[in-house]
Amino acid sequence: MISPRVKSILYGLTIQTIISIFALPSHKSLNPEQTNTIPEKASKSRGVNLLSDLISLFYPEVCAACGMLLYRHEDTVCLSCRYLLPDTGYELVADNPVARIFWGRVRFEQVSAMYFFAKKGKVQHLVHELKYKSNRDAGLFLGREMGKKLAASALYSDIDYVVPVPLHARRQRIRGYNQSEVIARGIKETTGWRTDTTNLIRAGATETQTRKSRSARWDNVKDIFQLQNPDRFAEKHILLIDDVITTGSTIEACALALSAVNNIRVSVAAAACATS
Length: 276
Ligand SMILES: [Zn+2]
What we know:
Blueprint: H1 4-23, H2 37-58, H3 79-84, H4 97-100, E1 111-116, H5 122-132, H6 136-151, E2 161-164, H7 169-175, H8 179-191, E3 200-202, H9 214-221, E4 225-227, E5 237-245, H10 249-258, E6 265-273
Parallel strand pairs: 1-6, 2-5, 5-6
Antiparallel strand pairs: 3-4
């Protein structure tokens, strides 16, 4: 059985192949004096397009937020999803629901999350692609979008270091990368802010956080983060990066490790939040 998706690519490819064959200049009919690089370039780019169509037939590029096929001009996330992703706007408001998660627990300069995370929604799809489907492009997309928004906000104007929440070494080996680090790389691309991935480290092994209550999560993570060189962050404004903020326990534990640093200021930015 051929899936409807493959059928639609085959159909598009067949039409494009026919057009390409008829549109390609015949080299025999070309006058050598008239030969210049333009038709050669055009036929080359047509050849490249045809090749990329053939590749996409076997490895179709799909949107990391909705799973539909991407058009050639689209990258990672389709235009429709880019338009429909649920922005929180929290990066522009100091007193927002994600910042309030930490009230009475830890003092941050600013806290924000870019998108609302809803079960079976586009943002969950994106984060799932990043964390469980080895799709780093989904994380780079999230990071770049975060970077654009954070750079446009007066609340995040003096960031010295972007610090992704460290992943335990064993889990990073299994996944191949730290998802928060990938997001931080995307942020760096659009803001130019320095990233530090070596100073804050995760020491102990932790069990998975997914099915734990808030107090159980806190017991699980509170002592596991350590700073290698506290002086490096002295007098600096650190931006901690996480994928999704739920109870905030992991971020709080990072803040605990950072609190030993002289005159440090810490802000937090996550790709998504589970609160509304
Ligand atoms: Zn989409």
